[in-house]
Amino acid sequence: MARSKPTDATAPSGKAGRAPKDGGRGRSSAPTGSTASGAGKPAKAPKLDKKGQPKVGRLKKIAGQARMIKQAYGLTRKNDPKLPWIMLIAFVVVAGVIELIGILLSSPFLVLPLALISGGLAAMIIFGRRAQGSAYRQVEGQPGAAAWVLEGMRGDWRVTSGVAGTPQMDAVHRVLGRPGIVLVGEGVPNRVRGLIAQEKKKVARVVGDAPIYDVVVGDDEGQIPLRKLSAHVTKLPRNLTAAEVNSLGRRMSALGGQRMPVPGGPLPGGKQMSVSQRQVRRR
Known about the structure:
Shape: elongated
Distance between the termini: 106 Å
Strand order of the largest sheet: 1-2-3-4
Number of domains: 2
Helix content: 40-55%
Number of strands: 4
Largest sheet: 4 strands, mixed
């Protein structure tokens, strides 16, 4: 007689009564959103440059520089209508001279690329100088012009604009760099020299033996023209090391920063000076 299988009336029927597929080992399920391919992992942090800013691709940098040069060209051409013709003449003259040398050497086609590159370089040099001159002509005599020049200097220069001033928009700007401390005044000379003397006393109590230079911007005797301000400051002797500059910067923080409202850049014709003109001037 066949033996019958025991039945359990209380056991649930169907899939509900089956054991877990993992054999009951107690493995927890994967967290929501995670997959075998690694989806759900936190995104990688962008690479940073030396200044702590996200790195920009080389092509994006080139495109950005091209846009700035185009903008600067348009602004400069408005104030300097002869710019295209002068650039064209520079290109033709330089390229023509080099190509003539190639013809004399019986290698005109071999020298042609060099002639075109040299002509283009000459045109860009002319453009940079004309753009720089145009920018200086626009900002000269405007409040904050010296601060605009100082902030555009290349290198490790720590500029604090408007550390002292008068209601008549005379101002003194403080620059920290390898030469030491440079106090730059702009405005009416008599008032500016008094401001510089007061600021020099304050700075001397903090900086110790570090050199302190003073400069008054202007076209009179003993003053530095605005267009030569950047060159004058950068040519000062290097008296401090980079470590000493950092240490001095921490001590200078006790003096505080800007104390008077100085424009972030001069306002020629009622308009803020564009970033592209600053970039061209730095070149």
